[in-house]
Design the sequence.
């Protein structure tokens, strides 16, 4: 491993200050970042560890909104169960060791195009809370590995409105455990949302045609004849763009059936 | 360099570490506990699995500074007080749950985490829990069998030797 400084603040204020230094990068659970550093795909000179900050951890349920601290690990979300579809999604990420270490804030901020949490946030109409503002999920995920976060800004929490119905269906890429394609569907006070991860070169996206169809009839049949174009879908050794586009339709139906 | 202290298998261990020093490196080089194996070094194989404050983690993805003050358990902390193999370790021996043995420390630590969470897992649950641990010798059947046996369940009907 190349040489760098690591600091481990115990308060958010100290972390933000440390992140103001030149070429400093936040480190949350490190399940993506540490292997990335090893391969020297990223080489920051200072890492600011967020895992020692207690105020960034924990899950609160207030008036139908679940607020999850940015440094809360996947295993804690999986065990919580207040929002069953979200807990199930968290329990399917990676493997048990990854779930004990990886965090929701890290996953949301990294916005891997095949990660699960971005689909839950976008598919639930969640609000991303940072150290200086709140951003709707619709405005937060701006492209593959890209978000609305500014330099030195971190995800301190995610607020999920708990919907009436929701489900996540993941077609797992068996080697990486990431979603080859994953679809998160919810039906709540603000209508139906369908969020797709793993498929598009632009990262997580809402399938608006499916949302319109499901708004009047929340059943798998409502999706008959609908499909997403293969253009712009990810193509790699695990699946062609056409295959991923096909999976989006199939998995959306399954997610609607599962949500009931 | 930063001084860190952690409790490893009940014993306090201190050392000066760099920012980049991984927990796996600290365990092997500072604490001298080489039972924690480094296989892939990219967080895929699980050979370096240890427990940090009771939760299983891949020690090659945790920096030593982040484990400052933590309770860490490694494979060296698994045997019974008299030095004999514990139930899980004995089951791995009895059921031929290892061949070359490289992945075994991680497998045993993972099995211990599983059985603490779920004392009587089904075969499917065992296989699911082992997703983060790779073995290139056994084909997993005997590892699964050993873990089922360690949980006190009858394994006569499970996959061939």
Sequence:
């Amino acid at each position: 491993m190349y040489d760098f400084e690591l600091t481990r603040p115990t308060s958010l204020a100290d972390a933000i200050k440390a992140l103001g230094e030149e070429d400093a990068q936040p480190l949350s659970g490190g399940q993506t970042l540490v292997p990335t550093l090893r391969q020297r795909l990223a080489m920051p000179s200072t890492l600011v560890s967020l895992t020692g900050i207690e105020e960034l951890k924990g899950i609160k349920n207030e008036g139908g909104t679940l607020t999850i601290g940015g440094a809360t690990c996947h295993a804690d979300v999986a065990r919580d169960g207040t929002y069953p579809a979200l807990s199930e999604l968290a329990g399917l990420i990676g493997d048990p060791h990854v779930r004990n270490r990886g965090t929701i804030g890290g996953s949301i901020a990294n916005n891997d195009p095949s990660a699960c949490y971005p689909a839950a946030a976008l598919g639930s109409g969640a609000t991303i809370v940072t150290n200086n503002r709140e951003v709707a999920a619709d405005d937060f995920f701006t492209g593959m590995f890209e978000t609305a976060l500014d330099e030195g800004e971190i995800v301190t929490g995610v607020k999920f409105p708990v919907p009436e119905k929701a489900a996540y269906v993941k077609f797992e890429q068996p080697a990486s455990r990431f979603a080859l394609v994953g679809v998160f569907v919810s039906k709540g006070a603000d209508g139906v949302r369908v969020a797709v991860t793993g498929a598009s070169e632009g990262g997580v996206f809402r399938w608006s045609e499916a949302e319109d169809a499901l708004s009047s009839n929340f059943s798998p049949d409502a999706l008959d004849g609908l499909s997403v174009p293969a253009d712009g879908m990810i193509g790699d050794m695990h699946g062609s763009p056409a295959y991923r586009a096909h999976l989006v339709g199939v998995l959306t139906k399954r997610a609607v059936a599962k949500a009931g | 360099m930063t001084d860190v202290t952690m409790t490893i298998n009940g014993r306090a261990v201190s050392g000066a570490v760099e920012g980049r020093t991984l927990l796996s490196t600290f365990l092997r080089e500072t604490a001298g506990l080489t039972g924690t194996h480094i296989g892939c070094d990219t967080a895929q194989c699980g050979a370096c699995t240890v427990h940090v404050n009771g939760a299983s983690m891949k020690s090659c993805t945790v920096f030593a500074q982040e484990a400052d003050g933590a309770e860490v358990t490694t494979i060296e902390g698994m045997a019974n007080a008299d030095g004999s193999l514990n139930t899980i370790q004995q089951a791995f021996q009895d059921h031929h749950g290892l061949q070359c043995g490289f992945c075994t420390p991680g497998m045993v630590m993972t099995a211990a985490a599983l059985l603490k969470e779920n004392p009587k897992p089904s075969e499917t649950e065992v296989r699911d829990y082992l997703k983060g641990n790779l073995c290139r010798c056994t084909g997993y059947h005997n590892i699964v069998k050993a873990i089922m046996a360690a949980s006190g369940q009858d394994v006569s009907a499970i996959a061939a030797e």
Remarks:
- The beta strands of chain B are 2-8, 11-17, 49-52, 55-58, 71-73.
- The radius of gyration of chain B is 16 Å.
- Helices of chain B lie at 23-30, 87-94, 104-117, 123-129, 141-150.
